[in-house]
Amino acid sequence: MWPFRTSSVVCLACGTELSQSMAREYDKYGDRWDRANKTFEHLCKGCHSDLCPQPRGELEKLLGELEAGNPSQAEFLSRYVATVDDRYGPLEES
Ligand SMILES: [Zn+2]
């Protein structure tokens, strides 16, 4: 199906691995055009559409809380999933 191996990324919210071309970039700073010294996080299509309707300020605040204490990526992800699940209800499996 895919003639070339594409680099894959992991969805920030649900941990699904998907090809980068299928992922939605999520920049927690809200500025996707300034790429200097940044790493983008990624969301799968399902989580992206789940999250976007949420008030953005709230999501930023949430991410700020989750980053307190500089957790490892794995820890951050599990905190994120647990917190979103807690506040917004379970993410839909797609
Ligand atoms: Zn996802």
TrEMBL record:
Cited InterPro entries: DUF7562
Protein name: Small CPxCG-related zinc finger protein
Taxonomic source organism: Natrialba swarupiae
